[in-house]
């Protein structure tokens, strides 16, 4: 039985006093058994939290009690296990980091396209469909016809746009562009950036891939593969059911069954993506950590995340 409600949320809105929101929000989450990560910045709020349904309702009610966040929209899914190990409320310069000044997603974002209308848009051969997620996310699933910018960070996206806007590039001549991402937040900022570069016909999937997978029937879907998510579920499929990927505990990249069958895969230590990127000393530490995980598993205890919670408790009770 799924016992933990997961809520993914974001909103671009002017929050000049965002720093003062941190402590009350963290306190309210702790009181309601809610864990995850929330980012606060002058441009808004972003994050994913999980907990008992009444706890999530309490946090959403707390947020929407601020008139500026009254219209906050969230997406829900369920998990049998708590997908997070602690609660973090971080103060940031941006709630999704692009590194380009004066890109105001709250007022400059492109045209929203609802999931039920998305297929018709991306089926148009005159529309350039762009996946604005990072390369490792795209690698496990994307929409048919979608272009992969092959970025390792969202900060690389503006450079890709500049390169593809040159003669011979995919964006030369400023065609109609449809963009999508996991939950919609990167799309709002990317379409706002595109508009600063003179693109008038830019669209983005409202609610992101998650809302599409939640609402569009599989038989009508243009989606192939699975959708990476930033918690212990690793990936989800249609209906937001858990997917088939696992994390590499050394590099945090998603691993398929084929990856785990590789000679380079050593649970908790290395995988085909990172086997040659860590020193022998690092691998030894990872192996010791994995040993402790396995011992905890044999005792039916949780290991990952416990160390962080013990350190926190030590600080609070010196």
From TrEMBL:
Name used for this protein in its record: tRNA uridine(34) hydroxylase
Domain of life (superkingdom): Bacteria
Family stated for the protein in its record: Belongs to the TrhO family.
Species assigned in the record: Pollutimonas bauzanensis
Source species taxonomy: Bacteria, Pseudomonadati, Pseudomonadota, Betaproteobacteria, Burkholderiales
UniProt GO molecular function: oxidoreductase activity, acting on paired donors, with incorporation or reduction of molecular oxygen
InterPro entries tied to this protein: Rhodanese-like_dom, Rhodanese-like_dom_sf, TrhO, TRHO_N
Keyword presence, Repeat: no
Keyword line: Oxidoreductase, tRNA processing
PROSITE patterns for the chain: RHODANESE_3
Pfam hit, one: UPF0176_N
Reactions catalysed: uridine(34) in tRNA + AH2 + O2 = 5-hydroxyuridine(34) in tRNA + A + H2O
Summary of the function given for this chain in its UniProt record: Catalyzes oxygen-dependent 5-hydroxyuridine (ho5U) modification at position 34 in tRNAs.
Top-tier EC class: oxidoreductase
């Amino acid at each position: 039985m799924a016992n933990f409600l997961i809520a993914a949320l974001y909103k671009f809105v002017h929050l000049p006093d965002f720093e003062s929101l941190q402590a009350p929000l963290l306190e309210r989450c702790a009181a309601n058994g809610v864990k995850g990560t929330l980012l606060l910045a002058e441009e808004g709020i972003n994050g994913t939290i999980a907990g008992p349904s009444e706890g999530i309702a309490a946090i959403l009610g707390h947020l929407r009690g601020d008139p500026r966040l009254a219209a906050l929209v969230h997406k829900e899914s369920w998990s049998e296990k708590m997908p997070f190990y602690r609660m973090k409320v971080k103060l940031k310069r941006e709630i999704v980091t692009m590194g380009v000044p004066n890109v105001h997603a709250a007022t400059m974002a492109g045209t929203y396209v609802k999931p039920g209308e998305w297929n018709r848009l991306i089926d148009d051969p005159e529309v350039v469909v762009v996946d604005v997620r990072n390369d490792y996310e795209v690698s496990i699933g994307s929409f048919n016809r979608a272009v992969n910018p092959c970025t390792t960070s969202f900060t690389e996206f503006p450079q890709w746009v500049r390169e593809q806007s040159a003669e011979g590039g995919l964006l030369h001549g400023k065609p109609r562009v449809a963009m999508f991402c996991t939950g919609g937040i990167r799309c709002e900022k990317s379409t706002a950036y595109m508009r600063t570069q003179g693109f008038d016909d830019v669209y983005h999937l409202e609610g992101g891939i998650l809302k599409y997978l939640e609402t569009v029937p599989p038989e009508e879907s243009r989606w192939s593969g699975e959708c990476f998510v930033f918690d212990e579920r690793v990936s989800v499929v249609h209906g937001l059911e858990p997917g088939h990927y696992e994390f590499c505990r050394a590099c945090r990249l998603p691993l398929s069954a084929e990856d785990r069958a590789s000679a380079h895969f050593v649970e908790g230590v290395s995988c085909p993506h990172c086997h040659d990127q860590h020193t022998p000393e690092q691998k030894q530490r990872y192996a010791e950590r994995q040993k402790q995980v396995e011992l905890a598993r044999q005792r039916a205890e949780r290991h990952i995340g416990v160390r962080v919670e013990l350190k926190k408790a030590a600080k609070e009770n010196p």
